[in-house]
Specification:
The complex is a heterodimer of chains A (about 325) and B (about 350). Chain A is mainly alpha-helical. Chain A has helices at about 1-5, 10-25, 30-40, 40-70, 80-95, 100-120, 130-150, 190-215, 215-225, 225-230, 235-260, 270-285, 290-310, 315-330, and strands at about 170-175, 185-190. Chain B has a two-stranded antiparallel sheet. Classes of the chains: A mainly alpha (about 325), B mainly alpha (about 350).
Chain lengths: ~325, ~350
């Protein structure tokens, strides 16, 4: 952090100013002039929180994607299909047993099992052939998308969270002042979104700790840097590969349940989330977990603010960010060149 | 991936140079004549839907094959370039959406459309060449998605979700080019032009340098070639082919909408190129023929084995998987291996030749 400040004083000041403006706009009661220019504070805060929580969801999907890519150089274009599969599994578990929380471990285990099968029977046979692996994942995603359409139909499924998580929650943030009585109005926000966001933060931190503080994490990081050297030192690299693929796929499955609770599970969501994770890892930097977190936050915010303030081109905005990052920092914000 | 043939002129046994028509391989004569006399016995549906579509998809896929096979860059943006060219013809030329279409004559609208498509291809190319290998796939896929969403959201230029309909080819030489026979010959002509120009470019100095860049960019840079300039020029050339294909595609269905250049079609183009084989320019056309046959007749086949006709995607996906799994060079690769197998001496288990 200090290195960054001393190396890029200009950028540090800009970042500081933006953060200060953001903090002010979150906590202060907006003056009337500002409201006239960009709309009510409630809209702004909702967009901000929706963006952050959506970023949490994107992080869940993209972190598995970036982990698999970083270690195995495998662009898993079937990652979106794994996400969708997790969503369907989550829906059926939650609606048949009635336990929302049960959906998460079941989706994780089942989708991870699919990931293990994919790694053992398909990708292990074509190790080192990046392009061929990518083509195979395209084929798998086409087949899986059609199988799921066949099995589950084209309907929209919504996973309903349990009663203790539904409904809004009072926050301490002021959105405005009542004109009649002068009371402060506090922002209400859905509990489930907050809980899920916190859970994704916890998962992210746990992942960072595992990667940076444990033996397995050390092996994975070594594998990202130099796969051949790692296997030469006697590490059982195939086991590591299978483990990482299973974990990444399982995360996509969990994200599917989360996405089904936030939004809905339907055909076509697989491509949407595949693209989202593509953009997130391109922006954040390939193979970097912190990059995925940063990219997910950026893309989530861009999407939500875009849909509030320039609704027509919200989707294009995220791609614009990607193009800008590519043009000025091709390896991604956190990527190493 | 692609192989360039040796440059020495083929000679007959007694050492004399062959006459030009002897130098053309027999298979070209057979395929060429068969394609030329096809309208004499094929039905209108076959000509227009099966062959017309095959040639168009083959051209768009050929542009991908050129980039992938000779340049080592698999670009998923070719369908978007084709779509953009189609849109430009609709916008500059005539369509049923008279508010947006400018109604300029074809000799302005078509070149302008191709120039815009080429510009777009060049810009995307200069963005994509900053990355290598699989990254290129990801970035071009993201650009293709961005184009799709932009075209769907923009009502001022692209007319949003519904796009343009009533985009018809000009009535040149007094021929209605949307009749099946003229359209067949129109697409055949442009497909042949695209095929032979790719073949020519692949053997021209530019194409050879491009293949050098594919095989070893560092060495080519050390030899004084600009690696990025060659790659970007390849994108521009591929965009021209894809754009031509896109205009024909728009004329074939008389409409263009965001769905034409969506993510599914973009991946289909890659599937076509891979199924046919990315080594030689003939591959994409073979792949396109199989794709069109499947898309047209899969419903009947699926219904006959008791499945509903909607499982077409499953069939395509499984076929694609099988091809990638067993023959990464596509059907042409299978053919090559069979040829090699035939030449092999069954007793010595090695190829013919002085050993």
């Amino acid at each position: 952090m200090r290195n960054f400040a001393s190396r890029h004083p200009g950028w540090s000041i800009v970042i500081l100013l933006v953060v200060a403006a953001l903090i002010w706009s979150i906590f202060a009661i907006w003056p009337k002039g500002l409201v006239d220019v960009i709309g009510r504070k409630k809209v702004f805060l909702n967009a901000l929180f929706n963006g952050i929580t959506l970023g949490g969801l994107y992080f869940l999907v993209a972190s598995g994607f970036t982990l698999i890519f970083g270690l195995m150089r495998n662009v898993n274009l079937a990652h979106g299909s794994l996400y969708l599969l997790g969503g369907y599994i989550g829906y059926f578990v939650a609606s048949s047993t009635g336990y929302w929380l049960l959906a998460f471990p079941v989706a994780f285990v089942l989708v991870a099992a699919v990931g293990i099968l994919m790694q053992i029977f398909i990708f292990r046979r074509m190790e080192g052939q990046d392009l061929r692996q990518t083509l195979v994942t395209i084929g798998i995603s086409i087949v899986m998308a059609d199988l799921m359409l066949w099995g589950f139909g084209g309907d929209f499924y919504n996973i309903t969270p349990p009663s203790w998580l539904s409904g809004p929650m009072e926050t301490l943030l002021v959105t405005g002042v009542k004109r009649s009585s002068g009371d402060l109005i506090y922002l209400k926000y859905p509990v489930v979104r907050v809980v899920i966001f916190l859970a994704s933060v916890v998962i992210g931190i746990a992942m960072w700790l595992i990667l940076n503080r444990t033996q397995i994490g050390m092996m994975i990081r070594a594998g990202v840097d130099d796969r051949d050297m790692l296997s030469a030192t006697g590490a059982r690299i195939q086991l590591v590969f299978v483990g990482v693929f299973a974990f990444g796929a399982g995360l996509a499955g969990i994200a599917g349940v989360v996405g089904g609770t936030f939004q809905s599970v339907a055909p076509g969501e697989d491509i949407r989330f595949l693209l989202a994770s593509l953009v997130v890892v391109i922006v954040g930097g390939m193979g970097s977990i912190t990059g995925a977190a940063l990219g997910a936050l950026l893309i989530g915010l861009a999407e939500q603010f875009g849909s509030v303030y320039f609704p027509t081109y919200a989707v294009v905005l995220t791609f614009l960010i990607m193009v800008l990052v590519l043009a000025f920092r091709p390896q991604g914000l956190m990527g190493r060149s | 991936m692609a192989i360039t043939e040796s440059n020495t002129l083929p000679r007959t046994n007694n050492g004399q140079r062959k006459v030009w028509f002897e130098r053309i391989p027999a298979s070209y004569w057979v395929v060429g004549i068969a394609l030329l006399i096809m309208p004499a016995f094929a039905s209108d549906f076959t000509l227009y839907q099966v062959f017309g579509w095959t040639f168009i998809l083959g051209m768009i896929s050929l542009s991908l094959m050129f980039l992938g096979g000779y340049g080592g860059m698999v670009s998923l943006v070719q369908m978007s370039i084709a779509g953009l060219a189609g849109y430009m013809v609709a916008i500059f030329g005539d369509s049923a959406i008279t508010d947006i279409s400018m109604g300029w004559p074809w000799y302005i609208a078509i070149p302008l459309a191709l120039i815009v498509a080429m510009l777009f291809g060049t810009i995307v190319g200069s963005l994509a060449v900053r990355t290598e290998g699989i990254y290129t796939i990801m970035i071009t896929l993201a650009v293709a998605a961005a184009f799709f969403y932009f075209a769907r959201q923009n009502y001022i230029i692209f007319n949003g979700f519904s796009g343009f309909n009533g985009v018809l080819p000009p009535e040149l030489f007094g021929v209605d080019w949307r009749q099946s026979k003229p359209f067949y010959y129109l697409t055949l002509f442009w497909a042949a032009v695209a095929y032979f120009s790719v073949l020519y470019v692949s053997r021209a100095p530019f194409g050879l340098a491009l293949q050098g860049v594919r095989d070893n960019p560092r060495r080519m840079a050390a030899l004084g070639y600009s690696v990025n300039a060659h790659r970007i020029a390849a994108y521009a050339f591929a965009a021209l082919i894809a754009g031509t294909g896109g205009i024909l595609l728009t004329w074939q269905s008389a409409q263009i909408s965001p769905g034409t250049a969506g993510i599914g079609p973009a991946i289909d183009i890659l599937v076509i190129a891979v199924i046919g084989g990315m080594r030689r320019p003939a591959g994409p056309f073979i792949g396109a023929f199989i794709y069109v046959l499947l898309k047209t007749f899969a419903i009947d086949v699926l219904l006959s084995v008791g499945l509903s006709g909607e499982r077409f995607q499953l069939l395509i996906g499984l076929g694609f998987l099988a091809i990638v799994f067993f023959s990464p060079d596509g059907l042409l690769g299978l053919w090559d291996r069979w040829q090699e197998f035939r030449k092999r001496d069954p007793l010595l288990d090695r190829g013919e030749g002085p050993l």
